[in-house]
Write a structure and sequence with these properties.
The structure is a single chain. By secondary structure, the chain is of the alpha/beta class. It is 47% helix and 19% strand. The strands form two sheets. A seven-stranded mixed β-sheet has the order 6-2-1-7-8-10-9. Strands 3-5-4 form a three-stranded antiparallel β-sheet. Helix 7 links the parallel strand 1 and strand 2. The termini are far apart.
């Protein structure tokens, strides 16, 4: 009965984290994922991790840190779920996506046509539960129409969270995911099922999902060279050193003339001088010059 009592106590009252424990856990998370947690967010550790400590029968963050260091990797998956934020929806940031469709996508497709290469590689880094890469498929279908049959489209979507990747592959979404989605898109590509709306399997097959840590250079090297990289609302969680590391990896991955798109609240101004900022209709993209 002892461990059960400990669990209920942890769940009811929460487990307090000391300054020293916070630093140790923060540094462990940073070393494994590159995600940096500011001291101002210390309270999140207590609120998010207390339940997990209770499930494990642990009564202190010191015990949890020791457990992480001897665990064979399964707990890391739980850890990543707790430190990532998965706020997303279809057509998120409509202005940016419209600008991308009407300008950058058109430019890249025209360049490929002129070169006689009907191939397009897109990398969605930090794809969460799949709304972003699936939105990119919708944009491609809308842009290419029947011509898409001529093209070899490769969309690689990765995320730190294995749970989010599983949801993306399942392709079933609740009403919240459609808060900025045109009604005709849902009618065309989804059917109502128990628990939400299921995406057409033909659309799902166009995206290759995989769990991946952006702090893993070997994993990044396995991503096909890209014409376009989307990494929106991800680098905001990194410190300057990790931002530079990841953005350089995107630069190396991109083909000459390719584009990197980040979130509207993110900027490469102090991160990298390698890209050329491109301004289109209120949206900024970063180009790897040819």
């Amino acid at each position: 009965m002892g461990p059960l009592f400990s669990k209920s106590t942890a769940l009811r009252k929460g487990v307090k984290i000391t300054d020293e424990e916070f630093v140790q856990l923060r540094d462990f998370i940073y070393g494994k994922s590159g995600i940096f947690v500011d001291e101002k967010r210390k309270y999140l550790f207590e609120s998010r991790f207390s339940r997990r400590l209770g499930e494990l029968g642990l009564t202190s963050f010191t015990d949890y840190i020791k457990f992480l260091k001897v665990d064979r990797g399964q707990e890391l998956k739980q850890l990543f779920e707790m430190v990532t934020t998965n706020e997303t929806s279809f057509w998120r940031d409509t202005k940016q996506l419209t600008s991308f469709r009407d300008n950058l996508l058109k430019e890249v497709l025209d360049r490929q046509r002129k070169a006689g290469r009907f191939e397009l590689n897109i990398w969605s880094a930090g794809c969460s539960s799949g709304e972003e890469p699936y939105t990119l498929v919708f944009l491609l279908l809308e842009t290419l129409k029947a011509e898409i049959a001529r093209w070899r489209i490769n969309i690689t979507a990765v995320d730190l969270s294995e749970e989010m990747i599983a949801r993306a592959k399942a392709g079933i979404y609740t009403e919240y995911a459609f808060k900025t989605t045109p009604d005709e898109v849902r009618k065309r590509y989804f059917k109502e099922v128990e628990g939400g709306w299921e995406l057409d399997p033909r659309i799902r097959r166009l995206v290759k999902f995989a769990p991946m840590n952006l702090n893993d250079p070997l994993a990044i090297k396995r991503i096909p060279r890209s014409h376009i990289v989307f990494c929106r609302n991800v680098i905001i969680y990194f410190d300057d050193a990790m931002k530079r590391k990841v953005v350089q990896a995107f630069y190396d991955n991109l083909l000459p003339g390719g584009y990197l798109l980040v979130g509207h609240s993110e900027s490469l101004h102090k991160v990298s001088q390698s890209f050329k900022p491109i301004h289109n209709a209120g949206a900024i993209a970063y180009k790897k010059e040819e």
